[in-house]
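Table 4 source record.
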Amino acid sequence: MTLLCSWNVNGLRAVLKNGFMDWFHQASPDILCLQETRLLPEEVPGELRDVQGYHSYWNPAEKRGYSGTATFTRMAPEAVTTLDAPEFDGEGRAQFLHFKDFVVVNTYWPNSQEERKRLPYKLDFCQAIGEALDCLVKKGKNIIICGDYNIAHREIDLARPKQNENNAGYYIEEREAMTAFLARGYVDVFREMYPDKTAYSWWSYRARAREKNIGWRIDYFCVNKALQSRVKDIRICDDVLGSDHCPLALTLKPLPRGRGKA
């Protein structure tokens, strides 16, 4: 089995003070994708510079204390790339880790912000990531794309859909962009496995939202359809604290014997 975890930590330095390393060692994922690390390379704390048994790859934003992605993996990838687009790479929005069996894409999708201030930027990102993945699939690659998409796709994916129709993360344009992304041939693993299950991955810090479970499901694992048969399970680990998001855990079945790819 291969265990992949994804977590928007809302600042690595902060989550380190809230039991992150204990969780990391206990979960013991084969691949861990982090979003919103908010660290420049020279700011990476010592305990994360050399985690025993893991290779680490950092993709920071140019702006201090903002955005960024990082990935820890037991298996050394054949290559690590980005979108190769300055407007997105400058914010550390996506990492592509190329393995023999699949490409893991660790993503932090932009927040559209109030009054749709960054909606055009977000829609451009959706298009760019979709095109990049399509190119990989055409080359015969299998895709696992995880992270904070900053989109609640359907009414079931947030506690109060009607009240949030004009809020970032649930704008109609974002939901349509998510639909279009999946229509390229990708599967929202959690919703595919649990079509009627209510579960959230993000809660506001306000009004005891997490305690009341007034949340949003905006963090995802998606795969291309050819890889779907290898999915064993996915969990939204809402009992794990330390951030306003919780981790997701995806378990893949072993590659069938005698086959070079899933």
